[in-house]
Automatic annotation (TrEMBL):
Name this polypeptide is given: Large ribosomal subunit protein uL18c
A Gene Ontology BP annotation from the UniProt entry: translation
A GO CC annotation given for this chain: ribonucleoprotein complex
Protein family according to the UniProt entry: Belongs to the universal ribosomal protein uL18 family.
Taxonomic path: Eukaryota, Viridiplantae, Chlorophyta, Chloropicophyceae, Chloropicales
Originating organism: Chloropicon roscoffensis
Gene3D superfamilies xref list: 3.30.420.100
Length: 139
């Protein structure tokens, strides 16, 4: 039997295919060139996984631009986790948004820059943003 023939073109085309994760990371890197958190106006970064949602308030001016997390909250936080059936829905994201706003207010942070992490501003990411705004954060 003859071995299957693989053309050069097929190999090149396969190399250009990028995963959803790689595309999201590229979008995030592109957005991060313009989004920078300062001491007066830190960055509210959101990450969404299949099971949970995470939010952090970050001051990028510290640690040589690598950033310093001022406060964080997620669906894994014990106080939020107890009241949830699952961490992968809009209700859970709203609770995370309200909790991160409360923690930021405790640190006298009222204005932030929203970093959606390469995700679409829709669904759970939007729910975090709206709940944080209702909690008193301005962005």
């Amino acid at each position: 039997m003859a071995a299957p023939v693989v053309t050069r073109r097929a190999t090149v085309m396969a190399a250009k295919v990028k995963s959803k994760k790689q595309k999201r990371q590229q979008r995030h890197e592109r957005q991060r060139r313009n989004i920078y958190g300062t001491e007066e106006r830190p960055r509210l970064a959101v990450y969404r996984s299949n099971e949970h949602i995470y939010a952090q308030v970050i001051d990028d001016s510290k640690h040589e631009g690598k950033g310093h997390t001022l406060c964080a909250c997620s669906t894994l936080t014990p106080a939020i986790r107890e009241s949830l059936e699952t961490g992968a829905n809009v209700d859970a994201a709203s609770k995370v948004g309200a909790a991160i706003a409360e923690k930021a207010k405790a640190l006298n942070i009222s204005t932030v820059v929203f970093d959606k992490g390469g995700f679409l501003y829709h669904g759970r990411v939007k729910a975090v943003a709206e709940a944080a705004r209702e909690g008193g954060l301005v962005f």
